[in-house]
């Protein structure tokens, strides 16, 4: 009997435990569902919803909602701490900028240093703030727009080559720009990031005046412009993006935040046309200055072409790229004035972000007076470039089969990758330690097909045109037959040129009008051999430069015979 009673009680107790466990689990499941619904509701709340639930007076003073409130809070606290920032940052900025000033010191000065540098009592004001979406989760990137019309006290102690010492005051300094602030990497410990990286992302305005204390700065010719250029170049070099300053907050290795080269830009400066004449007598003597960063050791200068408004340079340069997404190639064309300062004819720039890695881009850039001024209707001429950007580590087969351990320029490598060759033996590679240069040798076949809409040069409204083909380096020439009394001549004549160095040679096609007692120039087109070497052959209609109208139809074909030489 006791056994039966115990069995019955055990069954009821077991059923009770099962029922209780099921109810408990159902209750926990309901609570989790309610919590998830509440969390989802909070996640969907807008700023206006939160203001309805909790009035602003209940929030801490640092929690704000609108953009203007954020900036007001930031500017108020910056004003409070500015005296401490001035004291701490003045010596730091002086120590970091002074070496840059010395690097850019004008040749007329023997010494250029700060004798006084303070940021003043007026704090800068932030006028905009934004968060940059870069697709990464290891840091935060912000951009702060800043305006500063302060009362800085900056005095430069300069000494000329003649031994004259002058104190020069930098006055009325006004600045507007956008600073980029990178907080990276994000960590678990306070303040939640390991280092601060800052840089001047965009310089919108930088105005200042220079005054010699107790004297006149114009007493030394060229001093004002030289000092002004030095200061602007120092700003460009020391803090302008992609240059950045890294300040460690938590000890660690932050070398990945430092400025590093990411690739090489190959530039062929081909020619310019229709340049503005800056000389009263004769024509300008143009040359070009090219750079990505305005550092003296990174700026490239072309040769001077005397007395020519349509110069042909055909020069090759290489530039180090540190941020292809934001950097530009700048080209400035000057008129050489001998012992006097050169006069700017015009300038242009090309965004590196518009270049496709590993692909040659052929561009004509319009020259303007100032890169900061977007509207310039005056015709100052155009400059012709061939550009190739090659990022480091790019898998593009850029190797020299004859000497894989030796360097080649990227453009040479691209051209070599399109040609055939045999590989050198190990003994041949071991026998030489010299750099190998690729010589793109071959035969260029040029078919002069026809011309269209040529200008009339004869009294009867016709012309007797013919074409002269010239290889610039070898000066080999060929010419077509004369087509009498035609503005749309058809030749269909083919000429072969043996080219010893296709990478650095050019084809010049000139159209002339034949006369009994002479000839009249009608126009020309100048072609590098880059495209025909890369493509093998192509047919194109080219506009005649130096003519009111007219086009020349050509067919070009390349038959490569690559060779290599020690340099």
From TrEMBL:
SMART domains reported for this sequence: C2 (SM00239)
C2 domain ranges (all copies): 244-365, 424-542
GO CC entries: endoplasmic reticulum; membrane
InterPro entries recorded: C2_dom (IPR000008), C2_domain_sf (IPR035892), SMP_LBD (IPR031468), Synaptotagmin_plant (IPR045050), Synaptotagmin_SMP (IPR039010)
Its membrane topology: Single-pass membrane protein
MF annotations from Gene Ontology: lipid binding; metal ion binding
Protein name: Synaptotagmin-5-like
Source species of the chain: Cucurbita maxima (Pumpkin)
